[in-house]
Amino acid sequence: MTGAPSGRIRHTILEWLKDPAAHFPARGSGDLAETGVTARAVAVKLGVPPRTARAHLDFLTRLGLLRTRRVRCRVCYRRDEIRIAEVARVFEKGW
Hints:
Blueprint: H1 6-18, H2 20-23, H3 32-35, E1 37-38, H4 39-46, H5 50-62, E2 66-71, E3 74-79, H6 81-93
Antiparallel strand pairs: 1-3, 2-3
Helix pairs in contact: 4-5
């Protein structure tokens, strides 16, 4: 995915996080849909350095599309479905 435009990368991340268990390896006994996915896991899947993945994830978090959760010493990211639905409605109405 390296070389892809940022918007497409972020869209891909959001798509993967719809069903994280289908796109990322399981971690311990936690449910990926509930706990979220680490930046490192996203980086490996994208084929980019963790710092790059974290920048995309942090951007999506600042927009309110992702929520974070600290699990031990890691930050995990998951979709905020309510916020995503609100944003979708704004675009459907045509602003």
